Amino acid sequence: MNNLTLVITAAGGLAAAIAGGALPAQARVPAAVVLTWGACAAALFAAITVLRTGQSMVLHSTQILPITGVLMVLDPFGAVFVIVTAVVAIAATLYWIGYASHGLSTRTVSAVLPLFVTSMLLVPAAGSVATFLVLWELMALTSLLLVLVDHRRSEATRSAAEWYAVMTHVGAAAILFALVLLSAHAGGQSFAAIRDYAGHLPPGVRGLAFVLAVVGFGSKAGAVPFHVWLPKAHPEAPSPASALMSGAMVNLGIYGIVLVGDRLLGGGPLWWWLVVTVLGIITALFGALQAATSTDLKRLLAYSTADNMGLVLIGVGASGCFATTGHSLVGGLAMVAALFVMVNHAAFKGSLFLSAGSVQVATGSRDLDRLGGLMGRMPITGAVFLVGALAITALPPLNGFVGEWLLFQSLLHGLPASSTVVGVIVSVAVAALALTGGLTAAAFVKVIGVGLLGRPRSAEAASAHEVPRTMQLGAGLLAGACVVLGLVPMIVLPALERAAALVVPGARPTALYGGVDLHLQGLPGVLSPVLLAAGLMLATGAVVAMRGLVGLRSRSRSALRQADAWGCGNGVQTARMQYTATSFAEPLQRVFDDVLRPDHDLEVTHRAESRYYVEKVTYRTSIGDVIEHSLYRPVIAGVNWWGRRARALQNGSVHRYLAYGLVALVVILVVST
Amino acid sequence: MTGFSGGAAAVAVVAAQITAVGLGGPLLIGLMRKVRSHLEGRVGPPVHQPLLDLRKLFTKQRIRPSYASWVFGAGPVALVATAVVAVAISPLATTHPPLGQSADFFAVVFLLLLGSVALALAALDTGTSFGGMGASRAMTIGALAEPALLVAILAFSIPAHTSNLPALVRLGLVHPQMIASPERILALGAFVVVILAESGRLPVDNPSTHLELTMIHEAMVLEYAGPDLALVTLGEAMRLTLLLGLFVNLFVPWGVATGSGAIAIVVGLAALAGKVAVVGVAIATFEVFTAKMRLFRLPELLAGGFILAVLGAAAALVV
Predict the structure, then answer these.
(1) A504 lies in the same domain as A615
(2) Contact A396 B121 (CB under 8 A)
(3) Is residue A499 part of a domain?
(4) Looking at the predicted structure, is the pLDDT value of residue A406 above 70?
(5) Which residues pair with B64 in a beta bridge?
(6) Pairing with B156, which of A6, A211, A486, B312 sits 20 to 30 Å away (CA)?
(7) CA separation (Å) from A451 to A371, A479, A573, B210?
(8) Which of B19, B140, B296 to mutate to test the interface with A (most CBs of A within 10 A)?
């Protein structure tokens, strides 16, 4: 009976897509949104039921998909991802109502966005290889269409979509190969069959399947070096779609790695998880560094997504390392920490992308150097943006802090028990955690300080207006989730523990819930976010009161005077004199010059009369993606070269093509005998 | 501790720590200035001059740059509030502070980071080039100091199996031989570098400079006047005192109270004051003989701190 909710989810999504595609312009977005909410509500209900009872929800139908049939199995681990997706989707679609007038109410978008949401809701519920691949591909294609929405307006959008299409399909090919390899050996295509047979698989096949899965799912999660599509596609997609991609879709990459590594293959040798941890470390550091030096708001957020997925991979990898060496308690804790970091990331990054969209709508720009002075003009969006930024910087009492604390605790408690190799990698992971924390702080001080504070850096920013209520509400909903998860993480931790227990065999519940404090059970470690929050509020109140009371007794009664900022005795400063995002990041860029390899271009034009007089100086600097530049460009150049060579084979002569056919036939006959 | 009297005692201990650091912080700054002056052949202002300055500043009018938003006023408040909460939970006078259960090293560090971020945002809110310059440099240094700090915490925490600060201090009291262990000494070396960087002392930042090109912290707070400036000064003094207090209690835990008796707390506070004063005099003396480093040489210093911390963590794992 319960498994009907999965049917309702799918039906609701399809109805939303049809309504979005068929209804007239006025009704289409609200109808699609409401029906999508219906799908999300059904999925939420299903996922919460699964988590509460611990029983998987199974749905089997042979009628829908020919030959293989559809098999859906929603277990507690998948349920966590369903809940995250549903919550982000509800907020993003709410936001979409207000955003729709900005080119996002076309038939295509209204039909595709609900499909995208539905496919993401159902991917973690897939119970067989065929079902999984169909849903996965649906998710990839619908998100690709959403990236392409603005393709008429900008060349960058087309290029981004091209990158995304190629990367997602290379990834899909790797996933396809991995899953088909497993199901071919297991002799059945349901995940249960593969799981049962996993013990009999030869180690080579297991290893190959895992590596392929890491490549394929890693590219979806934005793991370096497969991240190149992320900073291109996220910024070009319309903001509700970016929020969905960054808050929900990348998580499914993590889901896939754990699905293949833990759920299907039942854990593996140590090197698997060392690879995942190292991948996480590189991803986190590279993403944080690029985010700290980006000046495009949404590109910065996209790199920061890579950074956070790196942290999740560190947690997943460390969990695997500890579990395979027999420390399932710490392994379970690391998995809970990884999942909690992921949940947090969905909340704050969803909120940040939606806020960034609001800023873009209000000012027409996402270049930080053209923003500024928005906190006064857009107070609610500004405050929501600030909450998201403080949360991602892992500052107490918000959720990011609790997540990083859990991750740090799991690494700390795992260290003494681990072997030398694991010990070294985990220590490096702690250092990476710290450096990404510092770089993230720098990046988001830049976002808020340059983007929202100070003086307006362009006429558009100076005349910005607050966005519609639904947009504020959509972003605010997720920012509120950041606050709630930060104060009472116990409301989700038990669910994450249940999910982790499924993945890490022998894991015990690690956090004691019900009380105010967060205790690690069986390990020393306590955190009480509520106490910190209460203390901060009390102290803030006391300090404000002190400032006010002492002022009252003084001679100058008027509390606050406005004056021009100090201009070195040189009169009033202009907005152009402010630090820009580029200048803010310049010290970091210089420190990490060798990694970032920025392009500098200095052009000095001299006057005709004499070399000693300079007419003008042009200076350009830009930071590309060094991995894209040094890893992908040569490959692309090689493929292009190959393509040009192959053109010689095609001269349009039918006789020649018939000859090719004959040769191919002969070769096949020879080979097959 | 049960009932009302237990609660009152707990409040008294917390209040005593906050008051001691709130008053002692400015005095520490005054002491360090006095030592510097003497070594440079000047008489220098009296030790309690910073307290007099604070009183004067609090009676003045608040001034806000015309383009700044509410964030400008919130920065100093957040700086002091985070310092107050961090002081309240930390094991300064006693190894059993009433809220010590939540005094995770990690939590204290991120509380202080919240204050730094708030001040950097407020600096950018002024819409001037100085504010941006200070914020950019402070965040760069903060980002680079973070790995050294966190790995140092790791090195402290591995032998103790916890990152709870009171537990770490207690461990030093119970097992004095652990204080001289290589991992603690190396981690403390890293911690010193981080303290100098985070609190803007030489050779990272010159607290008495007003030369635009070299300012870091002073550039951030250039626009503050009156009560806001008083809060910034107070907050910075409290943060320095807290960091030094944690440093001495981790390295020389003797004198710190092990219970919550009134006399023990007073003795603990006195011991803390004495130890912090000694370290403060040492830093001031060091500063007389040190020049400020170039901004782009700082990564080398912080990387040095990081290496010490990594060696500490490695030693903790091997031993």
Answers:
(1) no
(2) no
(3) yes
(4) yes
(5) A562
(6) A486
(7) 5, 18, 18, 28
(8) B140
